[in-house]
Amino acid sequence: MSGVIARPRSKMTDALRAIQAPVRERLEDVTTAMQDIVTSGLPMVEEVSRHLLGMRGKMFRPTLTLLSSDLEGQAEPRAISLAAVIELMHLATLVHDDSVDHSATRRGLPTVNSMFSHQVSVIMGDYLYSRALRALVAIRDFDVLRVVTDVSNELSMGEMRQLAAIDALNFGEPEYELLIRAKTASLISAACESGALCGAARFRDAMARYGDRLGMAFQVVDDILDYTEDESVTGKPSGNDLREHKVTLPLIAALPSMSAAARRRVDELFASDEPSDAAIQDVMAIVADAGGIDYARRRGEQYADEAEAALRAVPDSPARAALVDAIGYVTDRRW
Questions:
Q1: Domain with 87 in it: what CATH number?
Q2: Domain for residue 3, yes or no?
């Protein structure tokens, strides 16, 4: 998967549609299942739920769940409910993230905390988790329950790891890997492993590894895009990680190669409660010049290669082909 070339966004959309083609009809059923799961009858909950479901993303994680369940052409109906649970858990993490970060927009739409309040945002994230887990219990499969509930703990631990990083600029690559595995890769791995348990259980270990490596690549690419693309591509302002004093792989890799003057400018940015746009742009350029983005690209490609290797245990099928294409989709998102 090395040597990827950025494609225009319209081609990226076409690529995702091709990946989703084998499960397109069932993805529509997943959307319906999500609506059914969050229905409460309480007006405020209904209003916030409509807003959240309206701002849901590309349904990438449910797509992986359904494809993983279909590796032997024997996907079970419960895979629909499982895929809905996975996406609701993902939405819950975004709601909590936006509240913690005080983010005003996501995917071009107002966040729950900016549209309603931080209190509503926290409670709504908890509500999504609880409804998702309730639906998960109804699937009546202990292995699936264990995989998905374990990841709910990992997601929380990931948030705590990030908050516990007091000296941000001493946050190294091993700590970064632990963080992104907990915050991103764990859910994508669970989407794939639990999906396999609903129709292709003998491949659960291969799919867990595939999802883990795909998730790691996914987050590395996201972190690169924060340095290289604008809001129209990422759904959030460029340089947002630096604005929020988050240290990601491009900066981690660049720090040892910086001049003393460049390092002082980085230190000044992290010492400022509200860094200016000019300071953020300055540090973004420093990171690029110091080779941080190039290093992160190489690491992302390595994770992608490992995801592809995990699929070698799986026989050819339309679902497997789509999962291979999903690797290219992840690594090719305009980096």
A1: 1.10.600.10
A2: no
Asked if the structure places residue 4 within a domain, the reply is: no
Low-confidence ranges of the chain (pLDDT < 70): 1-10, 165-166, 231-237, 334-335
Which domain does 232 fall in, by range?
9-331
d(CA 335, CA 327): 14
- Report d(CA 140, CA 217) in Å as an integer: 32
List the structure tokens of 53: 């479901």
- Per-residue burial over 275-314, b = 16 or more CB atoms within 10 Å of its CB, e = otherwise: beeebbebbbebbeebbbbebbbebbbbbbebbbebbeeb
Q: What is the pTM of this model?
A: 0.90
Distances (CA, A) of 189 to 86, 177, 180, 186: 11, 15, 12, 5
Number of domains comprising the chain: 1
| Chain segment 204-248, per-residue pLDDT in tens | 999 999 999 999 999 999 999 999 987 555 455 689 899 989 999
